[in-house]
Design brief:
Strands 1-2 form a two-stranded antiparallel sheet. The chain has 16 helices and two strands. It folds into two domains: 163 residues, no CATH class; 190 residues, Orthogonal Bundle (MetI-like fold). With 473 residues, it is mostly helical. The chain is 74% helix and 1% strand. Helix 9 packs across helix 11. The protein starts with 14 loop residues before the first helix and ends with a helix.
């Protein structure tokens, strides 16, 4: 809903087109700024403080960045303003109705604005949509004028600053540092926003379900009898998360038992034993595994690995479920092998050659040097690779849904069908959900608990990295 108004109208400039125009004007300012610096150098035989292209970059960045900032602000801000103002065009009797929902009303009006017709809308919806279109036309025109005026005006101001003593390189570096700092702030604020949104929704869930029942309950059955709503009381739903987290760790453990040894040993071979030709062949082939879509792995697990395990288990007298944690874990382990292998390979190659030479000088064989010197020195990086593999395994959903099922069984047996936290979150939030129900809010509680557990694992892993890194620095 942020930019559909920019794509309508015959006289308006679409958002993408306007952004490209700004970029082209910025390129023209770069040429003019660099040309002005060159003229100062050659025609007036003046020594410049910075290289000519820094003057062009300064003018171009000074023109483009404010214009893009205004363009983004207008694209987001006016839509929010329209959403608030258009409510005044909704009849009073509609607003006072018990089933009035602002989101639904805005969706109806937006359908008219987008030209999407589901039957014949009420007359007030059509009128509100026409008003929105008029506002959008004016906003498009105003946005185009202001953005073009800003890119030309700010570029001219920066161009007039060009002189032999102007420290354009320092100015460009300050602008770039500001961009990097802004990107960091955006990343931090995004993370904080995600955490707080999960925390607030989880608090609503824990107001309905006691936290001790959620953390220590052994039965997960979020299905309702009837249309239970938050705060209505009653219901037979059970929200014990122990089976979900047990299934998550069981499948992740199986996956790590496959990925860590295979990935680490392959990294050792590629970095220490393989020749250049072998490395050039095997390393790209192994990294292809990282590019295979997870749904393909899910098909492979459900159609090949699971039946094979079931058939093989029946031959030796084992009862293997058609959807088992073992099948999902094995295929997931194959999927995350490249994560362990590639990172471990890079870390092992980064170990200084002087350590290897010192080990050889003391009479160590190659195997002893790798085992007693190279691997301990690379241990922090290997731990980081394993930690990334753990995060990838915990967050995987498609393979679990297709190969392990959705049964929340409390079982330590990898031959049984289990489910994971991420699979249940997807199941709960699929389709139209009532965000006032405990069933839907339980997804946020699961996400919050998973975040806390992951942070705890990261903390302990960092302690291991810090302990062993100090020995080899």
């Amino acid at each position: 809903m942020l930019v559909p108004f920019l794509e309508k109208g015959n006289n308006a400039v679409p958002l993408l087109t306007l952004a490209i125009i700004v970029l082209m004007i910025g390129a023209a300012w770069f040429y003019l700024g660099r040309r002005a610096a060159l003229l100062l150098r050659y025609r007036e035989a003046t020594k410049l403080h910075s290289l000519p292209h820094y003057y062009g970059l300064f003018v171009a960045l000074s023109a483009i960045l404010p214009a893009y900032a205004l363009l983004v602000a207008m694209a987001i801000g006016d839509d929010l303003v329209f959403s608030n103002l258009i409510i005044d065009y909704v009849p009073l009797e509609v607003q006072q109705a018990q089933d009035f929902n602002k989101i639904i009303v805005l969706a109806q009006i937006q359908n008219v604005v987008d030209g999407i017709n589901f039957g014949t809308p009420p007359e007030w919806v059509t009128a509100a949509g026409a008003t929105w279109v008029k506002w959008a036309d004016f906003s498009r025109m105003l946005t185009t004028i202001l953005v073009l005026a800003l890119v030309l005006g700010s570029g001219l101001v920066a161009y007039l600053k060009i002189n032999p003593s102007f420290r354009s390189r320092n100015a460009v570096e300050r602008i770039i540092i500001g961009l990097l700092a802004t990107s960091s702030v955006i990343a931090i604020l995004t993370t904080i926003g995600i955490v707080f949104s999960v925390v607030f929704e989880s608090m609503r869930f824990f107001a309905l379900v006691p936290i001790q029942d959620f953390l220590f309950g052994t039965v997960w059955n979020p299905q309702f009898e009837g249309a239970e709503r938050a705060g209505s009381g009653g219901g037979t739903a059970l929200y014990g998360s122990v089976p979900l987290f047990l299934g998550t760790f069981l499948i992740s453990f199986v996956a790590l038992c496959v990925a860590v040894p295979v990935g680490l040993f392959s990294a050792i071979y590629l970095s220490e034993y393989a020749g250049a030709r072998e490395r050039a062949i095997f390393k790209p082939l192994m990294e292809i595994l990282a590019g295979v879509p997870t749904v393909v792995y899910g098909f492979f697990a459900a159609l090949t690995v699971a039946p094979l395990l079931r058939t093989g288990g029946s031959l030796i007298g084992l009862d293997v479920a058609s959807e088992s944690a073992l099948a999902a874990g094995l295929v997931m382990g194959i999927m995350i092998i490249p994560f362990v292998s590639s990172l471990s390979d890079d870390v092992i190659n980064a170990v200084p050659q002087a350590l290897r030479d010192a080990a050889y000088g003391l009479g160590s064989t190659k195997n002893e040097a790798v085992r007693n010197v190279v691997l301990p020195a690379a241990l922090p990086g290997v731990v980081a690779a394993v930690l990334l593999a753990v995060s990838r395994a915990i967050g995987e959903t498609m393979i679990v849904v297709m190969a392990a099922g959705l049964a929340a069984n409390l079982s330590f047996n990898p031959l049984d069908a289990v489910t994971t936290v991420t699979s249940q979150i997807v199941t709960i939030l699929v389709g139209d959900q009532e965000f006032e129900s405990a069933k839907t809010l339980s997804a946020f509680a699961l996400a919050l608990t998973l975040i806390v557990i992951t942070l705890a694992l990261n903390f302990f892993a960092l302690q291991i990295v810090k302990k062993y890194r100090e020995q080899y620095e």
